[in-house]
Design brief:
alpha/beta; Peroxisomal Thiolase, Chain A, domain 1; 2 domains; 5-stranded mixed sheet; 4-stranded mixed sheet; 10 helices; 27% strand; globular
Length: 330
């Protein structure tokens, strides 16, 4: 007789939501302020437009809006939340953590709220930390948010970087549920995060409180980042799938960090994931750093592509270098 699987605590995705600034900047708009063109940007990145935060739109306001929409989608009141993890590299202030400001905006007075800083990998790191805290019994309902206003740290004279990034926020609600320990059960199945600080100068911001006492601007060696991205991302995704005993063909949807179309397609090709299984939103959002995965996931859930029961693979790589992957059953 086959032994029945044991029961485990799973972090189940109960809802998702997103928020974007009202202002849209097209490639044609960019060509008026920097030496570039729509053709040049689309060919190299796949990006056609991005949202740019206006006065009064901040990492905090976008995060709170995305969180409210995620809670509405989950059918939950904010009072159910006992953990908020906000992934961001562009906080409203040096301190306190922007997560605590969002906590106050939502009227939550219990549990814990803190920021996670892993740049574009921040949301994957946030999911991993939330999952560990839920499994440890530290939380029963978590809000994991990615929110960025990268437009505030861009050098708008550098066409190699300013054409890539946009602003926005996305959120997921995770709830603790006791379920059979099988891949068929919903929830986060496997997460793996990595970093290698030797490459910090390939993608960084040239400012900070303890060094320049300024915010600084984003700097990037694009070719170097690209070179490492496909190898690092593919490796950690393969590790996550192997740990879950999942083959690439079993993945229903690949929801990657929206960095560059060539990176996304190259990674999928390296792993044998069909191109029509990639959720891609960078054409209209650009690279929104830690917000890009939850923004893309929310778009695919709301338009009906991703359905309950689907196996979803998330991945990201960011400055540091940091990278990681999460495999989840929605």
């Amino acid at each position: 007789m086959n032994q029945q699987p044991g029961l485990v605590v799973r972090s189940v995705i109960a809802g998702c939501g997103s928020a974007l600034p009202h202002r849209i900047m097209t490639n044609a708009d960019l060509s008026k302020i920097v030496d570039t063109s729509d053709e040049w940007i689309v060919e190299r990145t796949g990006i056609s437009a991005r949202h740019i935060a206006s006065e009064g739109e901040t990492t905090r306001t976008l995060a709170a809006e995305a969180a409210r929409r995620a809670l509405d989608h989950a059918g939950l009141d904010a009072s159910a939340v006992d953990l908020i993890i906000l992934a961001t590299a562009t906080p409203d202030q040096t301190f306190p953590a922007t997560a605590t400001l969002v906590q106050a905006d939502l009227g939550i007075t219990r549990g814990a709220a803190f920021d996670v800083q892993a740049v574009c990998s921040g949301f994957v790191y946030g999911l991993t930390v939330a999952d560990a805290m839920i499994k440890a019994g530290q939380a029963a309902c978590a809000l994991v948010i990615g929110s960025e206003t990268f437009s505030r740290i861009l050098d708008w004279t550098d066409r190699g970087t300013c054409v890539l990034f946009g602003d926005g926020a996305g959120a997921m609600v995770l709830r603790a549920e006791t379920l059979p320990d099988t891949n068929a059960s919903p929830g986060l199945l496997v997460s793996r995060i990595r970093s290698d600080g030797r490459y910090h100068d390939k993608l960084y911001v040239d400012g900070g409180p303890s060094t320049t006492k300024t915010v600084g601007h984003l700097r990037m060696e694009g070719r170097e980042v690209f070179k490492h991205a496909v190898v690092n991302i593919a490796s950690v995704m393969e590790e996550a799938m192997a740990l879950a005993n999942v083959r690439p063909g079993e993945v229903d949807w690949f929801v990657p960090h929206q960095a560059n179309r060539r990176i996304l397609e190259g990674t999928a090709r390296k792993l044998g994931i069909r191109e029509d299984r990639i959720v891609m939103t960078l054409d209209r959002h650009g690279n929104t750093s830690a917000a890009s995965i939850p923004l893309a996931f929310d778009a695919a859930v709301k338009d009906g592509r991703i359905a309950k029961g689907d196996l979803v693979l998330f991945e990201a790589m960011g400055g540091g270098f940091t990278w990681g992957a999460v495999l989840a059953r929605y």
